[in-house]
Amino acid sequence: MRAFALSEDQVEYAARVRSVAVESLVPLARAGEDGRINRPLLHAMGELGLLRDLYGGRPGEPPRDAAAMQLCLLRETIAAVSPEAETALALQGLGSYPILQSGSAATVERWIPGVVAGDVVAAFALTEPGAGSDAAALSLRAEPDGDGWRLSGAKLWISNAPDADVYTVFARTSDTGARGVTAFAVAGDAPGLSGERLDMISPHPIGRLAFDGVRVERADVLGEVDAGFRVAMRTLDLFRPSVGAFTVGMAQAALDATVAHVKSREVHGGPLAAQQSVAHALATMATDLEAARLLVYAAASAYDAGADRSTVSRSAAMAKLFATEAAGRIVDQCVQLHGARALQRGHLLEHLYRDVRAPRIYEGASEVQRTIIARELLKERTSS
């Protein structure tokens, strides 16, 4: 049961996505290798139209600006079935959305059809060794070179690196803080671009990138020169609630598995669920999960309704903060109720336990979300 009133079309859409994910995506996801891009999986998602759904598009139509609620339903539904498939899909959206949002017609045509088909792998390259949550501290330089630029520096903790086909890269073009950053679309095989994979607890591919005078043209600029921070924030305002949706899906899978376990597990002559402490733990987890889901849906609805930037940013931050933190608590409690079996390699909860940690850090750590919420709250009180 969901307190939020999804439309009949939305309910049918989620059911259809779940069916497709169970039948077509799970086998391909299981066949993939941790820390590597699963290209057969991406190609299948392209054929099934799921990558087009990232942008709110429909078969036969060109991709358009994303619909936040559809994105959240897509991510939540797939995450409850296969976190690997969900992550692969979401990274395509995060890496390519700035191109769709701010690229020239030629740049969009060069990259987006391949992304939608699952033949081109995209990545979002913002974080650097010395600039994580403080995105305004970026030091990767874009030095003028004729009618273009040359990029020099490094990026770190980049999902899908170093094997992506196109990167949305944020580089410093002037020394004016956040206002001196420009976004570029950079081909993965560009001369001077290299990288290495990183061995992480999270199973999806993450790597480091090195830029040694990588040439970019004026046509590769996304948006305006020195206005790349705006491109990044528009992307994150859309994707932050859907990060919450991702963790809601994982938490739902963990809770479903745990309810089944405590009903069948016998202790002291009765089911584990008969223990009051266990029943109360289930109640707390279910309440946290529903609250997280409602915050995610509210943030998505605000985005789709065209709410003002302050409302969108605050709602997105609240949704990501609460949902990712709640999912971490829920998965941890589910592991506790399962006992040692949940930590055995290959168990659903072992996988979720590793996967659920990273969302509290990427796309703005929980501390950053609290800062955004407080800033918007204080700004609102000051203006009134």
From TrEMBL:
Cross-referenced Gene3D superfamilies: Acyl-CoA dehydrogenase/oxidase, N-terminal domain, Butyryl-CoA Dehydrogenase, subunit A, domain 2, Butyryl-CoA Dehydrogenase, subunit A, domain 3
Key words of the record: FAD, Flavoprotein, Oxidoreductase
Cofactor (UniProt): FAD
Domain Acyl-CoA dehydrogenase/oxidase C-terminal: 227-378
InterPro entries to which the protein is assigned, alphabetical: Acyl-CoA_DH_CS, Acyl-CoA_Oxase/DH_mid-dom, Acyl-CoA_Oxase/DH_mid-dom_sf, AcylCo_DH-like_C, AcylCo_DH/oxidase_C, AcylCoA_DH/ox_N, AcylCoA_DH/ox_N_sf, AcylCoA_DH/oxidase_NM_dom_sf
Molecular function per GO: acyl-CoA dehydrogenase activity; flavin adenine dinucleotide binding
Highest taxon, organism lineage: Bacteria
Stretches assigned to the Acyl-CoA dehydrogenase/oxidase N-terminal domain: 7-119
Domain Acyl-CoA oxidase/dehydrogenase middle: 123-214
SUPFAM superfamilies: Acyl-CoA dehydrogenase C-terminal domain-like, Acyl-CoA dehydrogenase NM domain-like
Pfam families in alphabetical order: Acyl-CoA_dh_1 (PF00441), Acyl-CoA_dh_M (PF02770), Acyl-CoA_dh_N (PF02771)
Family statement drawn from the similarity comment of this UniProt entry: Belongs to the acyl-CoA dehydrogenase family.
Name listed for the protein in its UniProt record: Alkylation response protein AidB-like acyl-CoA dehydrogenase
